[in-house]
Amino acid sequence: MVENTKCECGHNNPVGTILCEYCGKPLQQEVIEKSSIENEMRYEGAARRSQQSVMSLFDRVWAFFSSVKVAISLIVITLVLSSVGTIFPQEEFVGAASKELFYQQEYGWWGTIFYQLGLSKMYSQWWFASLIAMIGISLVICSLDRVVPLYKALKGQKVIKNIEFMKRQRIHVAAEVARDEEESKLAELEQQLKKHHYHIQRDGKAILAEKGRFSRWGPYINHIGLIIFLFGILLRFIPGWNIDSFVNLVEGETKRVPQTQYYVKNEKTVAEYYRPEELPPAMRSGGGAVIKKYQTDAVLLKKVPGSNEMKEVTRHNIQVNDPLTYEGLNLLQSDFQPQQLRGIKLGITDKNTNQSKGQFTVVFHDISLNQVYQVGDLKVRMEEYYPDFAIENQRPITKSQEPNKPAFIFTIQNPDGKKEKSWVISGERLPDPEGNQYGIDLAGFDLANQTGLMVRAEKSLWVYLIGGIIFMIGVTMGSYWQHRRVWARVEDGVLYIGAHTNKNWFALRRELEMVGKPIGQVFGLVENEKE
């Protein structure tokens, strides 16, 4: 059955229209039975796509996301999950090598569930990004579903309105007017409304007075700001767009900056202390050293395409509150550890003569397999390296890449070309293979200062800023102004007035009373109850 949406005024309305686009007369039976049409005036009674009776698959999806209840539900679900994600620390803040073991040992059964459900890295999960995207889609569709019909209705609104439309406004009045005073009363009413800054449209014996229409767009401008803000959040899922990490480097070490194409080299790390004479008397008695400055002489590097060579991008002496900054990437001084283990010194002894052949230094951050060390007339080649040595299934493994228990397999070659292998394991002394002429022993440690640098990058800040500014503009528009309209029409010796505002009804009622007094018309304003 085709719905008849033709009004008695002769205007053909789109299917789903509640109030006639031309004269405002209620079209649907349930609305006709109401004494007030305030709810229907929210979107001018216009037909919305989400309220069509016959829908395609696209229309059903549109109707789902256009629901305010759905939008609120998505926001609540996201807020609840975000809160759950803060119960235990996220993986990025856990330093343990085995994340699963950490949660199990620290938080027991709940920690295991937390890890297995993926809540330990919630804010980088695809389903969390999907929730954010769905909120954004809901905001877009909610806005378009309402703002387009509202804009069309307000742009094309007519001056002459149906008497039923005016009588069903929340504030309305009907006053008898003498035939010879009709024109003068309308003219006086028009002048008084102009004094209250209303924009006036006149059509015969009908007036439409309006002001503050722009405030109706406030909520939709809010939505634009929120959509931009959510877009900024989604940008964080792009690798390198948002970085909140940490990197430790001993002097001379080069490491890759997490989530970027850059490398950072620690050329030198120093700590400067105040001399006693530089301190106030009250601080001299403590006896302890007072730090004056931490500084890391850092170089930011980038690989040359097609080779393993590095080229310098920039350099900076990083101090507290004076980071190295490059294209949105910030390296901040955060930690300082003096005299940290950088490597070990190994000595070679000829067991036949018990004479030292010399020493060589293995620097942990500069190890490569088949690396050759020249010790006197001997060549020492590193065959295998296990930073965190352990035995598993009768085979050597490394539990992590940190040099907690380094182990090495070296091949020693004498001038005659004879080769022999030796094991060196930290904390253990293994007998050399039978027949080996040379022994390798620990001769000392290579110590150096270590710096800790925070790595920060937040490229979405400008997106958040723009979204926030637009959001506040919308809040201001919607909070401090109201869209007020007054319809007046003389019909059969009766002056009908209907008034509507999107908020602050008391102020509108008081304003209309002020409008009526100067023209000698005391309006007995009637206020319909909201239904």
Descriptive account of the structure:
With 531 residues, this protein is an alpha+beta fold. It folds into four domains: 45-154; 163-219 and 475-527, Sirohaem synthase, central domain (Double Stranded RNA Binding Domain, 2-Layer Sandwich); 242-340 and 452-468, no CATH class; 343-447. Helices cover 28% and strands 32% of the residues. The protein has eleven helices and 21 strands. A six-stranded antiparallel beta sheet has the order 2-3-19-20-1-21. Strand 10 and strand 11 (355-363) form a beta hairpin. Helix 3 (68-84) packs antiparallel against helix 5 (126-155), helix 5 (126-155) runs antiparallel to helix 8 (218-235) and helix 8 (218-235) packs antiparallel against helix 10. The protein is elongated, with a radius of gyration of 39 Å.
